[in-house]
TrEMBL record:
<feature type="region of interest" description="Disordered">
    <location>
        <begin position="32"/>
        <end position="52"/>
    </location>
</feature>
<protein>
    <recommendedName>
        <fullName>Kinesin-like protein</fullName>
    </recommendedName>
</protein>
<keyword id="KW-0067">ATP-binding</keyword>
<keyword id="KW-0505">Motor protein</keyword>
<dbReference type="Pfam" id="PF00225">
    <property type="entry name" value="Kinesin"/>
</dbReference>
<keyword id="KW-0378">Hydrolase</keyword>
<dbReference type="InterPro" id="IPR027640">
    <property type="entry name" value="Kinesin-like_fam"/>
</dbReference>
<feature type="domain" description="Kinesin motor">
    <location>
        <begin position="3"/>
        <end position="451"/>
    </location>
</feature>
<keyword id="KW-0493">Microtubule</keyword>
<dbReference type="InterPro" id="IPR036961">
    <property type="entry name" value="Kinesin_motor_dom_sf"/>
</dbReference>
<dbReference type="InterPro" id="IPR027417">
    <property type="entry name" value="P-loop_NTPase"/>
</dbReference>
<dbReference type="InterPro" id="IPR019821">
    <property type="entry name" value="Kinesin_motor_CS"/>
</dbReference>
<keyword id="KW-0547">Nucleotide-binding</keyword>
<dbReference type="InterPro" id="IPR001752">
    <property type="entry name" value="Kinesin_motor_dom"/>
</dbReference>
<comment type="similarity">
    <text>Belongs to the TRAFAC class myosin-kinesin ATPase superfamily. Kinesin family.</text>
</comment>
<feature type="binding site">
    <location>
        <begin position="97"/>
        <end position="104"/>
    </location>
    <ligand>
        <name>ATP</name>
    </ligand>
</feature>
<feature type="compositionally biased region" description="Polar residues">
    <location>
        <begin position="32"/>
        <end position="43"/>
    </location>
</feature>
Length: 463
């Protein structure tokens, strides 16, 4: 399994909390000197709690304090692996934690003007943009090989995806014939009869300002709602993809979509003709069996003609896909196609935890909110099982367990890169009223970290 690191980030206490609510957990951090430097953490429950003390394994790459800002986290977590992206590899960053623990603040940030407070996504885009500017400066004027950043933003809710850069367009998550997962929008019927199914929109950004404006516009469309913690919690998994692109790459991918659009009606006609001929060519007997129709001879030539036309258009699609590979091979930039995937996971929910229910000031969750919470928890459990199965090199990886893991499959197993890297950032609250939620967050990360093992989290691979 490619390298996998687990980090913990403690959220600072909010100044608006009451004296009772602001009681902090007793948090101990143990530094372990082994072949690699890892940390363990332990929690002492509040005096009024019946919970027992708990201590993690030595699995954390680093533990960030409440006083550490986003730049500190970026410098330690993301910046060291950017050379991987500049070699064309895919790197994933997942933020996991209960509602209100600081996931969105870490991944996305709320200050888009001051670099020290940028979320990991925008801070990474800023550093990559500077590298691309230097590379573009060496190109001849007017070159078509100018590098830019492609931004994709979508959210997963239940079994659907919603394109945040394309008017919150509803998209379907499907597994293709090649075993890969595809996210496609609604089917569009063109004036000439062609049928087009658009993928998630890629917004080409040739400057950091363009990317920043696209990020802000997309975030305004993200769904929020009440959770067990507060009333404006992220109720979806947000996925932000940053890819190094050129115009030639985007045009080649658009050509694939166009060829696929041309294939759809041709393939449908071939299927219709096959079914039509076979329905005429067979009749059903009284005992329910199908036998050749003596009054009709199947027109095999008609079927063969339609299949030949379908094969012709499939060849066009294949050539368009091959051209995408040619663009990669012809580029003088090894960074082309390098990706950063940031996933702001929806807040984990614990509706049956009495300590949370007692401390929450909001009304009991509605049946709809409970269904959403159960779906979120199902996604998060599936994610853990996928990571563990990959770490243990099991023959079957349960990607199909949830839409979230189906979507992340392409990032965990990138087809166009030689390696990948994944980091999970656990966000936790030190408030005593959030002991149960914090405990569950740390236990989740502990299970993932133990499963991945030291070999999967080799620090030498982060050079």
């Amino acid at each position: 399994m490619p390298p996998f690191d687990v980090f913990t980030r403690w959220r600072p206490l909010l100044p608006t909390k009451t004296e009772t609510e602001s009681q902090t957990l007793e948090i101990n951090r143990v530094h372990t000197n082994q072949s690699q430097t890892r940390y363990s953490t332990s929690l002492m429950p509040p005096p009024s709690s019946r919970d027992r003390p708990w201590r993690s394994d030595a699995i954390f790459t680093r533990i960030f304090e409440g006083t550490d800002n986003n730049k500190t986290v970026f410098d330690a977590v993301v910046s060291p692996i950017l050379p991987r992206v500049l070699k064309g590899q895919t790197c994933n960053f997942l933020a996991y934690g209960h509602s209100g623990s600081g996931k969105s603040h870490t991944i996305i940030g709320y200050d888009f003007e001051h670099p020290n407070e940028f979320g990991l996504c925008l801070a990474a885009a800023r550093e990559i943009s500077e590298e691309l500017e230097r590379a573009n400066g060496e190109l001849p004027r007017g070159s078509e090989d100018v590098l830019g950043i492609g931004l994709r933003m979508y959210e997963l809710r239940g079994n659907m995806a919603f394109d945040l850069l394309n008017e919150h367009c509803r998209c379907h998550i499907r597994e293709g014939y090649d075993g890969q997962t595809y996210i496609r929008g609604e089917t569009e019927v063109m004036d000439d009869g062609r049928v087009r199914v658009r993928p998630i929109m890629t917004r080409a950004c040739w400057s950091l300002d363009e990317l920043r404006s696209g990020l802000v516009a997309g975030l305004e469309r993200r769904a929020t709602g009440p959770s067990t913690i507060h009333d404006q919690s992220s109720r979806t998994h947000a996925v932000l993809e940053i890819e190094i692109i050129t115009r030639a790459l985007l045009e080649a991918r658009d050509a694939v979509v166009e060829r696929q659009s041309e294939l759809v009606p041709v393939a449908k006609r071939a299927t219709d003709i096959y079914l039509e001929e076979n329905m005429k060519g067979f009749v059903r007997t009284e005992d329910g069996k199908f036998v050749p129709n003596p009054e009709y001879q199947i027109d095999q030539a008609r079927i063969d003609e339609a299949e030949a036309k379908k094969a012709e258009f499939e060849c066009y699609v294949q050539k368009a896909e091959e051209h995408v590979d040619i663009v990669f091979k012809a580029s003088q930039h090894p960074c082309l196609g390098g990706k950063l995937i940031f996933v702001d996971l929806a807040g984990s929910e614990y509706y049956h935890d009495k300590s949370i229910s007692a401390s929450a000031s909001r009304a009991n969750p509605t049946p709809q909110e409970q269904r959403e919470g159960r779906q979120i928890n199902t996604d998060l459990l599936a994610l853990k099982e996928v990571i563990r199965a990959r770490a243990l090199k099991q023959s079957r990886i349960p990607y199909r367990s949830s839409p979230l893991t189906m979507v992340l499959r392409g990032h965990f197993e990138p087809s166009t890169t030689t390696a990948s890297y994944t980091a999970m950032i656990l966000t936790a609250s030190p408030e005593s009223t959030q002991f149960a939620a914090t405990m569950n967050t740390l236990k989740y990360g502990n299970l993932v970290g133990v499963a991945c093992g030291d070999k999967a989290r080799s620090s030498s691979s982060r050079k």
